[in-house]
Amino acid sequence: MSRSEELFAQAQHSIPGGVNSPVRAFNGVGGTPLFIERANGAYMYDADDQRYIDYVGSWGPMILGHNHPAIRAATLAAVERGTSFGTPTSIEITMAEKIKSIVPSIEKVRMVNSGTEATMTAIRLARGYTKRDKILKFEGCYHGHADSLLVKAGSGALTLGVPSSPGIPADVAAHTLTVTFNDLESVKEIFAEVGDQIACIIVEPVAGNMNCIPPVPGFLEGLRSICDSYGSVLIFDEVMSGFRVAPGGAQERYNVLPDLTTLGKVIGGGMPVGAFGGKREIMDYIAPVGPVYQAGTLSGNPVAMAAGLAALSQLSTPGLYENLYARVDQLLNGLQERADAAGIPLTTNRAGSMFGVFFTTDKNITSFEQATKCNMEHFKAFYHHMLKAGVYLAPSAFEAGFMSAAHTEADIQQTLDAAEKAFAALK
Ligand code: PMP
C-alpha cells in the first residue's frame, strides 16, 4: 500500500470523501489521489517521495512554478509583520494599482478570498446596478459554487455528473438562464425574448472547466455588442484565463473589454485570493460608497497581498510569456505527433499557457457537446499511464492543463516519452 493510499483511507473518516474540494478525489479517473508533501518548480513530490512533472499547478495559480523564491521571500517577510489587521493597508493600494496596470478594462478593483466570492459578488453588483434579476451563463462554464451559478456548471459538477446541485432553491436557479458556449445565435434568441430582464452575461472568455475551449472568432465581440444593445453588464470570469492566456488575460488576447472582470488563482501566488473589478461607475455601486453590500474579514489580507503582488511583479520578466507559449507548443505538437503515429485519435486546444487534450476524431473542438463526447476510457487509461511515469495531469477530462515558467524543454521531452509509451499501451 502506498502512503497516499493509507492517508486517503484515513482521511475518509474525518473529511467528506477524504478531500476538501471534490475533483481532488479522482472521481474522474478512478484510483487514489496523490497526497503531496512538497513542491518545487515544475515538480511535486508525494508522500512516498515520488516526483511528478506537474501540469495542474494547483489548478492554475502556479504560473511561475511551485515555491518560487520571490513569492516565498515576500510571504515570509509579510508574516514577520503580522498576519492580519482588519484595517486598510498600503499594500492593498499597490495591489489595486498593479491590477489596473495589467488588466485593460479595470478602473477600480476589490480584493476577496476566492474566485467563488469574486463571481458571486460580481453577479450581485450587476443585478443591483441594472435592477434586473436574470443572469445568463453558458453550459459547461464553471464560475465557483455560489447558488445562482451552480446551474449546468463545468469542472467538478460535470465530473461528478451533478449538473445542478440539490440545496439550491428552484426559484433561485430559475433566474439563471443557460445557453450554448461559442453559439451567438443561442444568446441572441434568448435576449430577443427576455433581454430587458437580463442583468448580465457571465462567461469564461476561454473556457477551462469543460477541458480547454477558446472562443470562436466573433463570439466575445458578439456578447459585447448584445450587452451594449440591451444595457446588460458583460462579466468576463478570468479567474482561470487572467494573467494566463496573455498578461492582461483574454480581454487583452482577444481585444474585447468587459464591464466587470473576476480574477483568482494567479493573482494570489498560491494564497487564497480573488478579486473583481471594472468600470468605475459600476464599481462605485458597491458598499461603502454604493448600496450593494459586500465585505470580508480577511479580504486584502497582508500576507496574501504580498504573495500575490510578488507573483504579478514576476510576470513582467522579459520573455516569460513567449517561453510559456513555446513550451505549450512543444508539448501539444509532440503529443499530436505521437498520437497520430500510434493511431490514437487526439485533438489539442491551446490559449497562451492553458491547454486541452481531447481523445476524439473531431479535429476542431469548439463546443461543450464535443468535449463531453470524447473517449473517456482512453482518457482514463492515458491518465494512469502518465501518472505511473511521473507526470501529473488534471484528474478529469473536463479541466484545462497549465504550463508554468519552470517547465523546461527536458521536462516536456520526458512527458512526451511517457506519452509515447502510454499511446502504445492504449492500442
Ligand atoms: N471561475 C472560474 C473560471 C474557475 O475556474 C474557478 C475555479 N476553478 C472559479 C471561478 C472559482 O474559484 P475558487 O475555486 O477560487 O472559488
Automatic annotation (TrEMBL):
<keyword id="KW-0627">Porphyrin biosynthesis</keyword>
<dbReference type="InterPro" id="IPR004639">
    <property type="entry name" value="4pyrrol_synth_GluAld_NH2Trfase"/>
</dbReference>
<dbReference type="GO" id="GO:0006782">
    <property type="term" value="P:protoporphyrinogen IX biosynthetic process"/>
</dbReference>
<protein>
    <recommendedName>
        <fullName>Glutamate-1-semialdehyde 2,1-aminomutase</fullName>
        <ecNumber>5.4.3.8</ecNumber>
    </recommendedName>
</protein>
<comment type="subunit">
    <text>Homodimer.</text>
</comment>
<feature type="modified residue" description="N6-(pyridoxal phosphate)lysine">
    <location>
        <position position="265"/>
    </location>
</feature>
<dbReference type="InterPro" id="IPR015422">
    <property type="entry name" value="PyrdxlP-dep_Trfase_small"/>
</dbReference>
<dbReference type="GO" id="GO:0042286">
    <property type="term" value="F:glutamate-1-semialdehyde 2,1-aminomutase activity"/>
</dbReference>
<dbReference type="GO" id="GO:0005737">
    <property type="term" value="C:cytoplasm"/>
</dbReference>
<keyword id="KW-0413">Isomerase</keyword>
<keyword id="KW-0963">Cytoplasm</keyword>
<dbReference type="InterPro" id="IPR005814">
    <property type="entry name" value="Aminotrans_3"/>
</dbReference>
<dbReference type="Pfam" id="PF00202">
    <property type="entry name" value="Aminotran_3"/>
</dbReference>
<dbReference type="InterPro" id="IPR015424">
    <property type="entry name" value="PyrdxlP-dep_Trfase"/>
</dbReference>
<dbReference type="InterPro" id="IPR049704">
    <property type="entry name" value="Aminotrans_3_PPA_site"/>
</dbReference>
<keyword id="KW-0663">Pyridoxal phosphate</keyword>
<dbReference type="GO" id="GO:0030170">
    <property type="term" value="F:pyridoxal phosphate binding"/>
</dbReference>
<comment type="similarity">
    <text>Belongs to the class-III pyridoxal-phosphate-dependent aminotransferase family. HemL subfamily.</text>
</comment>
<dbReference type="InterPro" id="IPR015421">
    <property type="entry name" value="PyrdxlP-dep_Trfase_major"/>
</dbReference>
<dbReference type="GO" id="GO:0008483">
    <property type="term" value="F:transaminase activity"/>
</dbReference>
<comment type="pathway">
    <text>Porphyrin-containing compound metabolism; protoporphyrin-IX biosynthesis; 5-aminolevulinate from L-glutamyl-tRNA(Glu): step 2/2.</text>
</comment>
